[in-house]
């Protein structure tokens, strides 16, 4: 009996599956609070060079001191990274006569003064990560995503080797430990290391939650469960805006977003191991125990349940699986998500709206992926994301409402692409390779996430270069997505099941015997192109 038929016998979407999905959705909701935390953790408030006190300033107001000490931008605001080497008292008479002699302008010599009206403190104000140190501020997000990238490989392999449940619990515990250590950081170096390790830990949660939930539901409800789990990401996205609005000090903000995992960790113990994984690894008795529990909770009768090692190398043995590795959705998604102040809205409102727009985007994708398929939905969502980013390059800055509307649409398309990507890649891999494959795909995506914050630094070369880069990558990835196979209504992993096995020598006999019916067995043999298999 195939596992899909077994799920139908015990009810592939009953009380048992709903309970599992609910528990798994809780840690999923916490993920964006860390993945997008950089927007608030490393926010840079308005600042200017600190001016040492002088006797000549006694009778001057603070505004007058700034006027004679700091040069102005063309729009009349004070420059953030420069000061006059000597006070320019003549500006008190006519402030419009800005000095043209650059020799009297120097970089800040005595630190910076920050506007604390919006943030009590951020890592930017804590360690002066501004001006020439601005790159270190952006690198904080990159360090986190480097950790996520490494974690995708590590937990992808470990989850296929030791099981989904054990690695999920390990991920949550490590996320709590390293998250709290991040909040207690006494130096930038310590913060960089602990945030990287937090990324490693949370990568396991991100990688395991969706496949573990989907491996317990039948084909008919697979899309629904994937979209539902993804919805909680959007809820967490909106909650981040509320938490960041209430907590303006960066250390307590880290504690606030890390704390929920202390509750989710014990809850994850109630989630059963994937029965698919247990059967694929020869642990039939344990699988039977979990399936029996599922059947009884769903009110179904008892039943009877009537293995192999793979690695990342297997993922590259066929053209089909090679194409799967080309997902670069995260680059454009995080490029938009980390530009909260670039569209004229309040950053807290932007965070909330960017999270809210994801919900209708997911609902639309739920309809589209079931009607037009995963491939077309994925490709066009990416292309439309790129077009929205490109449109905002040419829309003038004063058209704030129009720019905001286009940005919100682009964010919706990018989330639609992200949602489809996780659902799509989860379906493309067979059970014994699923976490390995998801790990590798996530590895490629998180590379995009790691590079996205650094691309903002390209505005020093050309102001629109970051947007052009995000636009180009999104459109190119959309075009590549047209090359992927379709998985609509296809059982888990069947798209590439025969692909790694091009000859009898690489097709284990146990794999053939899983196809109980003779017709299915012959179809599997035919797909391998092996004539000698027919005699077995």
Oligomeric state of the chains?
single chain
Total helical segments: 23
What is CATH's topology name of the largest domain? Growth Hormone, Chain: A
Order of helices and strands: HHHEHEEEHHHHHHHHHHHHHHHHHHH
The helix-and-strand class reads: mainly alpha
CATH homologous group name of the largest domain: MFS general substrate transporter like domains
Cross-sheet strand order for the largest sheet: 1-4
Number of domains: 3
Unreliable stretches, pLDDT < 50, 5 or more residues?
307-326, 496-536
Described by strand count, sense and barrel closure, the largest sheet is:
2 strands, antiparallel
Number of strands: 4
Mean pLDDT: 80
Helical proportion, percent range: 55-70%
What CATH architecture label of the largest domain applies? Up-down Bundle
Q: What is the C-alpha radius of gyration, as a whole number of Å?
A: 27 Å
Supply the key terms.
mainly alpha; Growth Hormone, Chain: A; 3 domains; 23 helices; transmembrane helix
Structure characterization notes:
- The two termini are 20 Å apart.
- 47% of the residues are buried.
- The longest helix has 29 residues.
- The radius of gyration is 27 Å and the shape is elongated.
- It folds into three domains: 216 residues, Growth Hormone, Chain: A, CATH 1.20.1250; 68 residues, no CATH class; 173 residues, Growth Hormone, Chain: A.
- It contains 23 helices and four strands.
- The strands form two sheets. It has a two-stranded antiparallel ribbon with strand order 1-4. A two-stranded antiparallel sheet has the order 2-3.
- The protein is an all-alpha fold and 536 residues long.
- The C terminus is likely disordered.
